[in-house]
Amino acid sequence: MELNVRETAKLMGVSEKTIYRWIKHNKLPAFKINDQYRFSRVEMLEWATSQRINVSAELLFDSREKKATVSSLEEALRAGGIHYRVGGAEKSAALKSIVEIMPLPPEVDKAFLLRVLIARESLGSTSIGDGIAIPHVRNPIVLHVPRPIVALCFMEHAIEFGALDGKPVHTLFAIVSPTVTAHLNLLSRLAFALRHPVFSKHIAQQGSRDEILESAREIDRLLLSRVPENAAAGGGAP
User: Fold this and answer.
1) Which of 26, 47, 149, 155 could be bridged to 80 by S-S, CB 3.0 to 4.6 A?
2) Regarding the domain delimited by 67-231, which CATH topology (the fold level of the hierarchy) does it fall under?
3) Structure pTM?
4) Closest by CA position to 11, among listed 67, 61, 50
5) In the chain, what's the furthest Cα-to-Cα distance?
6) What are the extents of the domains in the chain?
7) 196 belongs to the catalytic site
8) CA–CA separation, 52 and 47 (whole Å)
9) What CATH code is assigned to 2-56?
10) pLDDT tens, position by position, 33-92
11) Which of the following is catalytic: 83, 136, 183, 202?
12) What is the pLDDT of residues 160-176, one digit of tens each?
C-alpha cells in the first residue's frame, strides 16, 4: 500500500510542492526508494488525522481487498461499544481499562493487545488534540479479529497523553481491525466524523449512545455519497 508523491498529493488534496514542504517541515512520514519518496497509507493517514487534514474519500477503499473487510463507522461503534466513566489515572492504566472492556473474541490475547497498544504509543502519541486520542495497533492484521471494531471510551478523569497541544485526553476511540484496509477505512471515517459539527458536538458533550450512533450513521451516508459507485462496490483497476 505504498504511494508516490503525486498519489499522496491527490489524496491529500494539495500540490506536490506542499507534500515536499510537509516532509521537510511537518515531518510527514516518508521513505526513499531509488531517490523517490514513498508513503505508507497507514502512516500517512495517521499523520493527516493528527494534523486535522482532510483526506480524499478514495483512501477509504482499496480494490485489492474484498469489501467484506470494510465496516461502516456505525457498525464498528456498535461492535466495540460506547463506554462511560472508564477508569485509569495515566496512559498505560487507561489503555488497560479499555482493553479489558473491549468485546473481543475469546481467542484474542488481551495482554498482547495491551502490549502492542503501549508500544504504538511509544512511537508517538495517538492523541489528535482537543482531548481526543485514537489508540490502535501498528499492524492491524496481527490480531485476527473477525470484524473491525471501534470502542468509544469516555474517561472518568482526563489523563496526560503526550498530546501536541498539551491538553489532557478525556475521550478515546480504540480501533482494532482484521486488515490494513479496514483500519484505513475506519481511521478515515473517524477523522471525517470528528470534523463534522453534529458528531463532534455529541462527542464533546458525551452524548447518549443513540445520539452518537445516529450521527455516525449520518457520517456513513455522507461518505457514501462522496465515493464513486465503482469504488464503493470494490471495483476498479487493481
Assistant:
1) 149
2) Mannitol-specific EII; Chain A (3.40.930)
3) 0.74
4) 61
5) 52
6) 2-56, 67-231
7) no
8) 9
9) 1.10.1660.10
10) 888 898 877 777 777 776 767 666 555 455 444 444 557 999 999 999 999 999 999 999
11) 136
12) 999 888 999 999 999 98
